[in-house]
């Protein structure tokens, strides 16, 4: 697939990258924390300020802005003639706690620059071209990852919004109240128009591109994810008076369980296992832990391997219960299958990279992305740009302006083919 070569189609990747960095630095002020990094959780004041700032940026560039029921923000480059399936591009505005300024935000900024450049250069597209800032993707404040994109897809398919789950944040606030407190603008019917294709630019969050010295990653698939809560209940007691033999120490049990799972995970190629969130009760220096709850995040590109490891988790939990007298309860709260990207969009991204003169390679995404929400229903693809040292979800994540500029140029070429040449898979 080759994109038409207009005389002035090629922008300056260097200037695109510099513009992206300026916008990212401005966006980073919303949720910046003294400890370092950015904490911008969904529906918080920092989140609301970030979306309002993005809305102003979209408006200043001549885009028509609108919202949907859950706070996804859109900026549309209106087509020359009404009708047609819209082309959607963007990413998520929320962050993890003390995250960096590139994850999610780079995709929004890149899409804003790309759509603005296309409109300024060629005028209105032939299909509606929407930049989207998804309300939530990370699943940090509430255990509902991909909340923004799943609701966006539901609206585009004419379905009702996803029912509000009965989950609370760490302050005991449920999603319904959080949405109400965010004082969102009214939802627009424009968010319910069908989507013809979805394209997302994202920093790699790994080091494959940097290690290979390659400019562009063409994502072929996104790994599947399973997430669990593991609750271990022992018996609290005095740290100085209860003998080691008499204890039912929930923390000791949890550590033993996790160590065994980590050993088994390490023996399976390409499988990752992370226990990143912990709650200890009563969490006192002189009290034996009576209850420990921790998260498990399991990822692999094979659904069968995820199923097999799920059985391993259940088996280890059962064995630990028998050996240590503590009770273990396993709760699954995410089951995302591995998701392939659309072959035609993959070919389009590869062609765009070649036409621009940038090196590219196929990559598998080990992180989840909003693209996987759309991929089952809408032709979808992802463009990766290198991350320095593979660092992500941390204050020192970094992608150079040059790398961003090259990725945005590829995105421009892809969006031109989709929205102006109306190439739809």
Automatic annotation (TrEMBL):
Hydrolase: is it a keyword of this entry?
yes
Recorded hits in InterPro entries, A to Z, give: Amidase_Cbmase (IPR010158), Bact_exopeptidase_dim_dom (IPR036264), Peptidase_M20 (IPR002933), Peptidase_M20_dimer (IPR011650)
Start and end residues of each Peptidase M20 dimerisation domain: 224-321
Which keywords does UniProt give here?
Answer: Hydrolase
Determine the domain of life of the protein's source: Bacteria
Please list the GO terms describing molecular function. hydrolase activity
Family per UniProt? Belongs to the peptidase M20 family.
Can you say what this protein is called? Answer: Zn-dependent hydrolase
Protein source organism? Alicyclobacillus mali (ex Roth et al. 2021)
